[in-house]
Please model this.
Amino acid sequence: MPDQRISKVTAKCLCKSVVLEVHELATGFTTCDCSTCQYIHSGPGFGASCNDVKIVQGAELIKSYKPAAWATWNFCSKCGTRLHYQFDEEVWKSKQNRFVVSVGLLYEAGIDKFKMINEVSYDEKPPYYCFAGQRPKLSTSETYALYVLEGQKP
Ligand SMILES: [Zn+2]
Ligand SMILES: [Zn+2]
Model:
Protein backbone atom coordinates (compact mmCIF):
# COMPACT_ATOMS: atom_id res chain seq x y z
CA MET A 1 0.00 0.00 0.00
CA PRO A 2 1.23 3.55 -0.62
CA ASP A 3 2.82 4.99 2.49
CA GLN A 4 2.60 8.76 2.18
CA ARG A 5 4.31 10.54 5.05
CA ILE A 6 4.22 14.06 6.42
CA SER A 7 7.58 14.86 8.02
CA LYS A 8 6.36 17.05 10.89
CA VAL A 9 3.00 18.17 12.27
CA THR A 10 2.32 20.27 15.36
CA ALA A 11 -0.95 19.37 17.07
CA LYS A 12 -2.75 20.71 20.14
CA CYS A 13 -5.38 19.25 22.45
CA LEU A 14 -8.80 20.90 22.75
CA CYS A 15 -7.79 23.21 25.62
CA LYS A 16 -4.46 23.93 23.85
CA SER A 17 -2.44 23.15 26.98
CA VAL A 18 -0.72 20.15 25.40
CA VAL A 19 1.28 20.64 22.21
CA LEU A 20 2.70 17.66 20.36
CA GLU A 21 5.19 17.41 17.55
CA VAL A 22 4.37 14.43 15.36
CA HIS A 23 7.12 13.01 13.16
CA GLU A 24 6.85 11.00 9.92
CA LEU A 25 3.09 10.78 10.03
CA ALA A 26 1.32 8.28 7.76
CA THR A 27 -1.75 9.71 6.02
CA GLY A 28 -3.35 6.30 5.61
CA PHE A 29 -4.96 5.53 8.99
CA THR A 30 -6.45 2.54 10.77
CA THR A 31 -9.88 2.31 12.34
CA CYS A 32 -9.95 0.11 15.41
CA ASP A 33 -13.28 -1.42 16.41
CA CYS A 34 -12.04 -3.18 19.56
CA SER A 35 -13.88 -3.10 22.86
CA THR A 36 -11.19 -0.91 24.49
CA CYS A 37 -11.77 1.72 21.80
CA GLN A 38 -15.53 1.57 22.47
CA TYR A 39 -14.78 2.53 26.09
CA ILE A 40 -12.14 5.15 25.32
CA HIS A 41 -13.76 6.79 22.28
CA SER A 42 -17.42 5.79 22.65
CA GLY A 43 -16.92 4.32 19.20
CA PRO A 44 -14.10 3.23 16.95
CA GLY A 45 -10.60 4.63 17.32
CA PHE A 46 -9.10 6.46 14.33
CA GLY A 47 -5.34 6.14 14.64
CA ALA A 48 -2.57 7.42 12.37
CA SER A 49 0.85 5.85 12.77
CA CYS A 50 3.98 7.91 13.08
CA ASN A 51 7.59 7.34 14.01
CA ASP A 52 7.83 9.68 16.98
CA VAL A 53 5.82 12.04 19.18
CA LYS A 54 7.62 14.80 21.05
CA ILE A 55 5.83 16.73 23.79
CA VAL A 56 6.51 20.41 23.20
CA GLN A 57 4.24 21.79 25.91
CA GLY A 58 2.04 20.52 28.76
CA ALA A 59 3.91 17.30 29.59
CA GLU A 60 2.85 17.70 33.24
CA LEU A 61 -0.82 17.56 32.18
CA ILE A 62 -0.54 14.30 30.27
CA LYS A 63 -2.02 11.33 32.07
CA SER A 64 -1.27 7.84 30.84
CA TYR A 65 -3.19 4.60 31.04
CA LYS A 66 -2.23 1.10 29.97
CA PRO A 67 -5.32 -0.69 28.64
CA ALA A 68 -3.13 -3.62 27.61
CA ALA A 69 0.27 -4.98 28.60
CA TRP A 70 1.78 -3.79 25.32
CA ALA A 71 0.51 -0.24 24.84
CA THR A 72 -0.03 3.05 26.72
CA TRP A 73 -2.68 5.68 26.00
CA ASN A 74 -1.99 9.37 26.72
CA PHE A 75 -4.68 11.93 27.56
CA CYS A 76 -4.82 15.62 28.40
CA SER A 77 -5.96 15.63 32.05
CA LYS A 78 -7.45 19.12 31.66
CA CYS A 79 -9.76 18.68 28.65
CA GLY A 80 -9.81 14.90 28.20
CA THR A 81 -8.49 14.88 24.62
CA ARG A 82 -7.08 11.47 23.68
CA LEU A 83 -3.70 12.35 22.29
CA HIS A 84 -1.81 9.26 21.22
CA TYR A 85 -0.80 5.82 22.27
CA GLN A 86 2.50 4.08 21.92
CA PHE A 87 3.47 0.47 21.77
CA ASP A 88 5.92 -0.53 24.49
CA GLU A 89 9.51 -0.65 23.30
CA GLU A 90 10.01 -4.27 24.38
CA VAL A 91 7.11 -5.27 22.16
CA TRP A 92 7.59 -2.87 19.23
CA LYS A 93 11.22 -3.15 18.20
CA SER A 94 10.80 -1.31 14.90
CA LYS A 95 11.79 2.36 14.60
CA GLN A 96 8.66 2.90 12.51
CA ASN A 97 5.06 3.39 13.58
CA ARG A 98 5.52 2.83 17.32
CA PHE A 99 3.29 5.85 17.99
CA VAL A 100 -0.35 6.18 16.96
CA VAL A 101 -2.01 9.60 17.09
CA SER A 102 -5.73 10.44 17.20
CA VAL A 103 -6.74 11.34 13.66
CA GLY A 104 -9.24 14.00 14.78
CA LEU A 105 -6.50 15.87 16.58
CA LEU A 106 -4.41 15.94 13.42
CA TYR A 107 -7.33 16.90 11.22
CA GLU A 108 -7.94 19.89 13.50
CA ALA A 109 -4.24 20.69 13.15
CA GLY A 110 -4.86 21.14 9.42
CA ILE A 111 -4.01 17.74 7.94
CA ASP A 112 -6.69 16.97 5.36
CA LYS A 113 -5.03 14.14 3.40
CA PHE A 114 -6.26 11.28 5.58
CA LYS A 115 -7.65 8.09 4.14
CA MET A 116 -8.95 5.10 6.09
CA ILE A 117 -6.92 2.12 4.86
CA ASN A 118 -8.20 -0.71 7.04
CA GLU A 119 -10.34 -1.71 10.00
CA VAL A 120 -8.90 -3.85 12.78
CA SER A 121 -10.54 -5.94 15.52
CA TYR A 122 -13.56 -5.94 13.23
CA ASP A 123 -14.97 -8.94 15.12
CA GLU A 124 -15.45 -6.68 18.16
CA LYS A 125 -17.36 -3.97 16.26
CA PRO A 126 -20.81 -3.16 17.69
CA PRO A 127 -23.66 -3.69 15.18
CA TYR A 128 -24.88 -0.06 15.23
CA TYR A 129 -22.31 1.48 12.90
CA CYS A 130 -20.40 0.65 9.76
CA PHE A 131 -18.33 2.67 7.31
CA ALA A 132 -19.01 3.03 3.61
CA GLY A 133 -16.42 1.85 1.10
CA GLN A 134 -14.28 -1.23 0.71
CA ARG A 135 -11.10 -1.86 2.72
CA PRO A 136 -9.48 -4.79 4.50
CA LYS A 137 -11.24 -5.81 7.72
CA LEU A 138 -9.07 -7.77 10.13
CA SER A 139 -10.19 -9.90 13.05
CA THR A 140 -8.51 -9.37 16.42
CA SER A 141 -6.21 -12.37 15.92
CA GLU A 142 -5.30 -11.18 12.40
CA THR A 143 -4.64 -7.73 13.88
CA TYR A 144 -2.23 -9.11 16.49
CA ALA A 145 -0.45 -11.14 13.82
CA LEU A 146 -0.04 -8.01 11.66
CA TYR A 147 1.26 -5.95 14.60
CA VAL A 148 3.77 -8.63 15.56
CA LEU A 149 5.06 -8.51 11.98
CA GLU A 150 5.07 -4.69 11.76
CA GLY A 151 6.71 -4.36 15.17
CA GLN A 152 9.69 -6.43 14.05
CA LYS A 153 10.41 -4.44 10.88
CA PRO A 154 13.84 -2.80 10.81
ZN1 LIG B 1 -6.21 19.75 26.89
ZN1 LIG C 1 -9.13 -0.46 19.59
Summary: The mean pLDDT is 95. Residues 13-15, 17-18, 76, 78-79, 81 surround zinc ion (ligand 1) (CB under 6 Å).
